[in-house]
Amino acid sequence: MEGRQSKIIYVDIDGTICTISKPYSDAVPLHEHILKINNLFDEGHQIIYYTARGAVTKVDYTELTKKQLKDWGCKFHELKMNHKPNYDLYICDKSIRIEEL
Prior knowledge:
Elements: E1 8-11, H1 31-42, E2 46-50, H2 62-71, E3 78-80
Parallel strand pairs: 1-2, 2-3
């Protein structure tokens, strides 16, 4: 993405920058993936973490998630929670998996 115009990039958390774990507090950071996102941040892109944590249970995981992102060294501009839909598959022409970065 280097050399391109700055982009707004939404990044999922569970299964993207950390392991999928219940409870969320047991999630393990995937440092290689975090580094990829941090590099995008450093290139000038706007990074917004977007998660469905609590979407089904209605439990507010905002403080836990903020702490995890900070502890894991994640660089980002914004965290959006409590309104991402819960889904099994997302199909979009603008989507890529972290492994493709």
